[in-house]
Design a protein that fits this description.
Elements (H helix, E strand, L loop, with lengths): L23 H12 L3 E5 L5 E2 L32 E4 L3 E9 L12 E8 L6 E5 L12 E6 L10 E6 L18 H11 L3 E5 L6 E2 L15 E5 L2 E10 L11 E8 L6 E5 L12 E7 L2 E7 L4
The structure holds zinc ion.
Zinc ion (ZN) binds next to loops.
């Protein structure tokens, strides 16, 4: 009878009550500063700032502390020559995404392990970055610590780092009522009959839509009315990825459309065509609904 391969036995190694060790002056100062909500590094003889601090300069093996009697923060609230406050912000140098955190990971949701170079430091610190999604992570991104309120003097006093604030969502909503002047009232009235009303300047011959009473170029009084469109040409356009209540879906296209016979374009929604099929020069036609322009759509080939 063959023996069972690779028998598994669960072991637990534990010091009941925890394993107590002394920190020494360098790590002790680092942890004490963390408890106070500050991050410090130690400066080497060559002027490099090591974070986390080390007791010996890895380059020379020399002790990093030159004034050991002055290192206790209680006696020396001002940082000694050896200790340097860094950060609290830093830059992500390298990172890896943890899509499925384990039980003893610092966060219970996906996060990144990152090498973070805190400002004023010459070495990088490993810590978690709570960026929400992997798409929000990038090398070179700026991060700030998120501190615990119940700090005890541990590297986990920094719960994690979080991305610098680069965008805000401002609630913007303005309700207003337009009282159309005589010219705009005529223009809107014409739209109910599915007609674009324009005006021709007697001086510079420009045809302007919407209809207006004076020339935007030369200021002459406009008296001649004429109809333009309802077909036209796309002169430029934008693909919008933010929802708009007037648009059927996201993404949607807004376009400048030069109506046939007009010299100035109007801006309008462009629909019934995939955004990637829209081009400058596309021939379009107005679609009317409810007494106004619903949107423009590509002209169907006859
Ligand atoms: Zn004019």
């Amino acid at each position: 009878m063959p023996s069972e391969p690779n028998p598994e036995i669960n072991h637990v190694l534990e010091f009941p009550g925890g394993y107590t060790r002394s920190t020494g002056p360098v790590i002790g100062r680092f942890l004490t500063e963390l408890r106070a909500g500050r991050i410090v590094g130690v400066r080497t003889a060559a002027g490099k700032v090591l974070v986390p601090p080390l007791e010996y300069d890895p380059a020379t093996g020399e002790p990093t502390l030159t004034t050991p009697e002055r290192t206790a923060p209680a006696r020396d609230p001002v940082l000694s020559h050896d200790f340097v406050e860094v950060g609290p912000a830093g830059t992500v140098r390298e990172w890896t995404w943890v899509g499925e955190p384990r039980k003893n990971h610092p966060l219970d949701r996906p996060f990144a392990w990152a090498l973070i170079r805190l400002d004023a430091a010459h070495t990088s610190l490993v810590h978690a970055v709570d960026a929400g999604t992997v798409k929000a992570m990038r090398t070179g991104m700026r991060v700030w610590p998120r501190w615990r309120h119940d700090r005890v003097g541990s590297i986990t006093d920094v719960e994690c780092f979080v991305p610098e604030v680069t965008t805000i969502v401002a609630n913007v909503r303005t309700e207003y009522t337009v009282t159309p002047g005589a010219a705009l009232a005529r223009y809107l009235d014409a739209l109910t009959r599915e007609v674009f009303l324009a005006g021709r300047c007697p001086t510079c011959d420009g045809v302007y839509v919407p209809y207006r009473l004076s020339c935007p170029q030369c200021g002459s009084v406009i008296e001649e009315e004429l109809e333009v469109g309802p077909a036209g040409t796309v002169t430029t356009f934008a693909i919008n990825n933010l929802p708009d209540p007037r648009a059927p879906q996201v993404p949607f296209v807004s376009a400048y459309i030069l109506l046939d016979g007009a010299d100035t374009p109007i801006i309008a929604l462009l629909a019934e065509v995939p955004p990637e099929r829209v081009t400058e020069g596309l021939r379009v036609r107005a679609v009317f609904e409810g007494g106004t322009v619903k949107w423009f759509a590509p002209e169907r080939e006859a």
